[in-house]
Amino acid sequence: MDKIENFACRVCGLIQGEEPWGECGEDPNFNICDCCGVEFGYEDYTKESIKAYRKKWLEAGTNWWTLKEKPKDWDIEKQLQNIPIDYQ
Questions:
Q1: CA angle 49-46-65, nearest 5°?
Q2: pTM for the complete prediction?
Q3: Residue 32 belongs to what domain range?
Q4: What burial letters (b/e) apply to 20-58, b meaning 16+ CB within 10 Å?
Q5: For residue 49, which of 87, 14, 79 has the smallest C-alpha distance?
Q6: In 3D, which of 1, 5, 10 has the Cα closest to residue 33?
Q7: How many C-beta atoms surround the C-beta of residue 13 within 10 A?
Q8: Which tens digit of pLDDT belongs to each residue from 76-86?
Q9: Phi, psi of 32 (to 5 degrees)
Q10: How many CA atoms are closer than 13 Å to the CA of 42, on its beta-carbon side?
């Protein structure tokens, strides 16, 4: 896993300020993603739960959990490309 993947939300691809699953990819910090609202280590614990959460978030309109953090030039397609390959 390369460094950028360590910082990307497995659901939406938003790059986080710290590694949501730690350097080894197995130690969740239980923070909440500002974009999709997933709690790292809870709702994204399995590949199946990640895909289900992503599907629900996309179908609901990709609303930001913390709206004040949404970039003015936000590009969902570009952000989704950050999702680690194993979790797409």
A1: 50
A2: 0.92
A3: 1-88
A4: bbeeeeeebeeeebbbbbbbbbebbeeeeebeebbeebe
A5: 87
A6: 10
A7: 24
A8: 999 999 999 99
A9: -110, 135
A10: 8
Residue 7, Cβ neighbours under 10 Å: how many? 15
* Rounded Cα–Cα distance for residues 83 and 13 (Å): 4
The total of structural domains in the chain comes to: 1
Residue in the block written with tokens 């949501």:
20
CA distance 69 to 51: 23
Q: Each residue of 12-21: pLDDT tens digit?
A: 999 999 999 9
